[in-house]
Amino acid sequence: MAEFVVEVQNLVKYFDGRCVLDGINLKVPRGCIYGLLGRNASGKTTIIRILLGHERPTRGQTFLLGTDSANLSAKIHGRIGYVAEGHHLIQNYRVGRLVKLCKGLSLRWNDKFFKSLMETFRLPMDRRVRDLSMGMRAQLNLSLAMAVDPELLILDDPTLGLDTVARRQFLELAIDVIQKQGRTILFCSHILSDVERIADRIGIFAAGKLVVDCPLEELKTRVRKLRVIFAETIPQNLYLPEIVNLQSQGREMIITVVNWNRQKEAILETYKPSSCTELPMTLEDIFIECTRPNATIQPAEKQEI
Amino acid sequence: MFTLIKREIEDHLVYFIGAIIISAVLIALLTSAMYYDDPGERPVFVVLSFPVIIVLIIGFPGMGASQMYTDRSRKISTFLTGLPVTRCQILTARIITGILAILVVLVPLTVTGTILWRLFAPPIPIFPGLIFDLSVVTFLMGFACYCLGLQTGWTTSRITPTLGSIILTCIFVPLIIVKGFSTQIKIILLLFIIASLIRTWQKFKHTAL
Question: DSSP of B11-36, one letter per residue?
Answer without folding.
Answer: HTHHHHHHHHHHHHHHHHHHHHHHH-
